Amino acid sequence: MNQEIRHSWKCPECHSKQPKTDNTNSPLRQPLQSTQPGRSNVSVLDEASCEASKVTIRARQQSQAVPVDDRYVTEDSLRRILSEELSCMIEVKIKKLLKKRTDHNFYKANYEEIASDLECIYWVERFSSCSNVNEMVSKFYDELRLIIDRSVPKRRPSKSKYPKWFSRTLIKLLSEKNKLRDRYRNMVIHMTNLNMTSYGGQVL
Predict the structure, then answer these.
(1) Where in the sequence is the domain holding 167, given as residue range(s)?
(2) What is the rounded distance in angstroms from the CA atom of residue 38 to the CA atom of residue 54?
(3) Predicted confidence pLDDT, tens digits, the chain (204 residues)
(4) Is residue 178 part of a domain?
(5) Where is composition skewed (Polar residues) in this entry (predicted)?
(6) Which residues contact 109 (CB under 8 A, 6 or more apart)?
C-alpha cells in the first residue's frame, strides 16, 4: 500500500457514517415513459411487448369507494336489531310465565272431599276401555289430577331457602335450634370476658 492510498483509506465503520448520494447513476435501467396522451402509466417497452403478443393493456382505473348511506340497513345492523328485539321479547315472556306460575297448596287441601271423590269412581268401568296396564295408569292419573284441581287450592310459589319437603313444623324447630345456639354462644363469650376481667386477664 503506497502513501497516497494509505492517507485516503477509511475503515468500514467510518465509511458507513458518511451521507449517501442518490441513485441517479444506478446501472438499473428504468423503463421509458410513453409520451402519448392518456397513456401515462404504460411504458414504451410494455407497448412493444403488447404489439408483439397482440394483447391490449388498458390503464387501470382507480376504484371509487361507494359511500355508505345511513338510511340503508346493513346486514350487521339488521342482525343487531333482531337480536335486541328477540331478547326483549323472551325476557317479557319469561316474566309473564313466572307471574302466572302457581302450584298446589296441599296444606289447605280438602282431603275428605278427595277421599269421597275417589270412592265414587267405579274403576272397573273406567278401565274397561283400556287395552294394557299403561293405559290404565294414565287413566288413573288423569282422574287423580282432576280431583286434585277441584279439592286443592293453588298459590304462588314462595322463595324459601329450605327444600320443598321441609314441613312448617320442621322449619320452626330449626329456627328454635338456631336461636338456642346463638344464645349459648353469646353466653360463653360473656362468661369468658367476665373471667378475663376478674382474674387480670388470666383465664382459668
Answers:
(1) 161-204
(2) 20
(3) 677 777 777 777 776 777 676 666 655 555 544 445 554 444 444 554 544 455 555 555 555 554 555 566 788 888 888 888 888 888 888 877 766 677 888 888 999 999 999 999 999 998 998 999 999 999 999 999 999 999 999 887 777 788 878 888 999 999 999 999 999 999 988 888 887 776 655 544
(4) yes
(5) 21-43
(6) 148, 151, 152, 153
Domain identity same for 155 and 174: no
Is 113 in contact with 151 (CB distance < 8 Å)?
yes
- Tally of CB atoms within 10 A around 144: 14
Domain boundary among 142, 159, 176: 159
> Can you tell me the distance from the alpha carbon of 189 to that of 107, in angstroms, rounded to the nearest whole number?
42
Question: From the CB of residue 152, how many other CB atoms can be counted at a distance below 10 Å?
Answer: 19
Select from 68, 136, 148 the least CA-distant residue to 102.
148
Q: Does residue 146 share a domain with residue 123?
A: yes
117 and 144 share one domain: yes
C-beta of residue 153 within 8 angstroms of C-beta of residue 104 = yes
